[in-house]
Amino acid sequence: MTPRTNPDERKDLLGGERPVERGSRRDRIRSKPGLSHAWRVGVFLAGLLCIAAGFALAVLPGPLTIPPVLFGLWIWSTEFEWAHRLFASFHKKGKEAWEHAKRHPVTSTAVTVGGLAFAGVAIWAVNHYQLVDRAKEYVGLS
After folding, report:
1. I need a surface site. Which of 30, 34, 42, 88 has the fewest CB within 10 A?
2. CA-to-CA separations, 33 to 1, 6, 39, in angstroms, rounded
């Protein structure tokens, strides 16, 4: 095998590998060809499961979809260079947003409380006016 220092040397369908420290657990896993592929596919599937769960949660109001998607992207970023670059940009934007929120606590609080209140009103309206049942009848599922 080639040295593990250049992530562009070994590419497969899942993209270039992230560099790892020599002698680490991942380096030992990557040194075995069959296990290396199984590990990468397992990491890909674990990340995909989290991202799919995040998108499945998109039907619920609120920010529930964001944490599983970011967690899945983080899982991918541990093994795949393309995901690491994408996660780094999200990480940078998250830090910038946190710094902005600390500089403007009143407006950040107002936006957060307003969003939660809007989500509460939306949940109440859907339940009170039975909008899901009405939509099913309109589409012809009931």
Report:
1. 34
2. 9, 17, 10
Locate 43 and state its tokens: 């990491």
- Gap between the Cα atoms of 89 and 92, Å rounded: 5
Please state, in angstroms and rounded to a whole number, the distance separating the CA atoms of residues 133 and 136: 5
**Long-range contact list for 7-11, CB < 8 A, 24+ apart?**
7/81, 8/81
Residues lower than pLDDT 50 in the chain = 1-5, 7-9
Report yes or no: 80 and 46 within 8 Å, Cβ to Cβ. Answer: no
Q: Can you tell me the distance from the alpha carbon of 26 to that of 43, in angstroms, rounded to the nearest whole number?
A: 12
Q: Give the DSSP per-residue string, the chain.
A: ---TT-TTSS--TT-PBPP--TTSHHHHHHTSHHHHHHHHHHHHHHHHHHHHHHHHGGGSSSGGGHHHHHHHHHHHHTTBHHHHHHHHHHHHHHHHHHHHHHH-HHHHHHHHHHHHHHHHHHHHHHHHTTHHHHHHHHHT--
